[in-house]
Hints:
Helices cover 32% and strands 18% of the residues. The protein contains 24 helices and 29 strands. A 6-stranded mixed beta sheet has the order 10-16-15-14-11-13, sandwiched between helices. α3 (72-78) packs across α11 (300-314) and α5 runs parallel beside α6 (171-189). It binds beta-D-glucopyranose (BGC).
Amino acid sequence: xxxxxxxxxxxxxxxxxxxxxxxxxxxxxxxxxxxxxxxxxxxxxxxxxxxxxxxxxxxxxxxxxxxxxxxxxxxxxxxxxxxxxxxxxxxxxxxxxxxxxxxxxxxxxxxxxxxxxxxxxxxxxxxxxxxxxxxxxxxxxxxxxxxxxxxxxxxxxxxxxxxxxxxxxxxxxxxxxxxxxxxxxxxxxxxxxxxxxxxxxxxxxxxxxxxxxxxxxxxxxxxxxxxxxxxxxxxxxxxxxxxxxxxxxxxxxxxxxxxxxxxxxxxxxxxxxxxxxxxxxxxxxxxxxxxxxxxxxxxxxxxxxxxxxxxxxxxxxxxxxxxxxxxxxxxxxxxxxxxxxxxxxxxxxxxxxxxxxxxxxxxxxxxxxxxxxxxxxxxxxxxxxxxxxxxxxxxxxxxxxxxxxxxxxxxxxxxxxxxxxxxxxxxxxxxxxxxxxxxxxxxxxxxxxxxxxxxxxxxxxxxxxxxxxxxxxxxxxxxxxxxxxxxxxxxxxxxxxxxxxxxxxxxxxxxxxxxxxxxxxxxxxxxxxxxxxxxxxxxxxxxxxxxxxxxxxxxxxxxxxxxxxxxxxxxxxxxxxxxxxxxxxxxxxxxxxxxxxxxxxxxxxxxxxxxxxxxxxxxxxxxxxxxxxxxxxxxxxxxxxxxxxxxxxxxxxxxxxxxxxxxxxxxxxxxxxxxxxxxxxxxxxxxxxxxxxxxxxxxxxxxxxxxxxxxxxxxxxxxxxxxxxxxxxxxxxxxxxxxxxxxxxxxxxxxxxxxxxxxxxxxxxxxxxxxxxxxxxxxxxxxxxxxxxxxxxxxxxxxxxxxxxxxxxx
Length: 810
Ligand code: BGC
């Protein structure tokens, strides 16, 4: 018998139920009697946010210093599995030093829209790249005995109404786009935990979605670890446990544990389900505590140096006209933009790290340029607000005019990249756009450096010679940018997402973020480049794009076979040469195109990538191996992955729009196209994305295969525990509650309205379902909430009585 099984056999029903919810915000419950320790879970994912205040509340400002690595958006732009693995190892070392058993991350949600407020925490618009990055991250962390919690499973692709929205997704898109990244990470790295998302998917909350949590995750992908709820994501605890949700976070001081016991005693819940959950939790605890027994420390300098290396590999050189970069070693440099001194290096919310130190470009550039070269700084814009200050602009021009080159540091202000809040548009602040225009008017040699976690519009692209997308590069981002500008580091980052010309070009634009009740993923599988390339739409910079200070030549493509059958492996060989004067690294991308498809398929799909470093003149062979799945689509009718027989192209390129080599392979498969409902006439819009977007409701409904649920807040309907507090203001009691909460938040944030945390709290308070209040106050009971709900629904006296009775009994 395993140790977990043995412990399980010795536990009472109450002890078992108790283990299934947290002791507080950050700890599991231990059981002293049995020697089961309590372990700690802490936010990440790109650093450790271990609170210094107790576990009774969330405090986003008070945490121990930790290395702030580049955010996931930046990590993905490295396309470097080994480097992400090393970041994982470093994160684990910090966990070991702080006695944290599980790091909450990485996030594997797909960037459906460039406007999602949490895109900086996610990897890519592509599921394969997302999965590979998540897998490397998890393997790195877990190699040192620390656990990860892969999140937010699934389809948490927006922040707006994230705690209640119902994501309506057709089966193909769900499988091919939104689940594949999780699947790759789960199958390839077995994270200790998977965190279910707040939202619903096709009608059910993720926290009680049997299909997602058990049938797909465990039965299909073979997942053996723990499923934990996102913080406050539990709707019905009993239903959730039966569906496969092991652990509720944070706990509710035993209230939901008692519900589990009651349900088992009443025969409404099978004790076997509870036992399974407890055994998994015990296995997790026993496994992870092993690593935490010894005292550990980590090397802050080494981690900082790693953070700088990663930020350097993550930065994407988007444009380099006339080789303006690296900077020439002569002539004065104008460095303009407040971000050069006060860097934007991470987003706001649960992932916010208190860095061990913080570099800025101004100081780092001054250290790297020769003594004879001067760097003159000007603010260029104000850090807060969006007004164009003419005096600040004039000063910027005065500094820029005589310089050999003007480096203009732009980006998104911290209030634009906040958990809980989506961006309203894709533009930079007006003051930033105005700065480029003004500086370009006095100096022809402008290089823009961007700090942001998600794409922005660049109406000034033609007026500048260089653009470096530095993303949110963590605490050493300033130094990393200096390394690239001066040529100490040769850029090798590539975009893990498309930069469209305008937000309106994005295929999800017309149905993002949806609401109030549902969000329809009408674009189906046409996410990111899958759409832009299929529709041949102009973009600012394509998926996979990124320049280097050297050039690479591709050649000698060889496919191991011209013909492939079920179960075969196709080997793809090619050679890449560094044809330029300096050492550099190239990410070679492999895409597959289904040439004759009867079902609709995107123009091409990423199925492999390799990053290689080459000395000047060096040439090396690269090899990819493709299984049948690389050619497959998800057949919703058959309920499985299928390859349609026919011809496929294997494309090797430097970006999705820079294909250098191509070869063909004929695939035969036992799969037969019988009568394919995806061919139906009403689905034609999906076969012709160039002319059919945005997709109209009937076509999506036909693809979805069921009547679309209503998206209206029905007037006169009773509110429920799931109604967001902001939607209850049509009643007197609802208005009162809303005002009370807003006032409390006003006090907490002390009038600092434009600060990220204030923005986030205000939005959370609006969108929090009534049941979520359980998380915010230690004294609330389910009974009290029922009383409040009665009052909101117009039964004032009964509600009041219930509330008073509950208060009396607690
Ligand atoms: C976030 C999670 C995070 C958790 C704990 C939630 O609101 O969605 O990503 O891990 O809080 O802070």
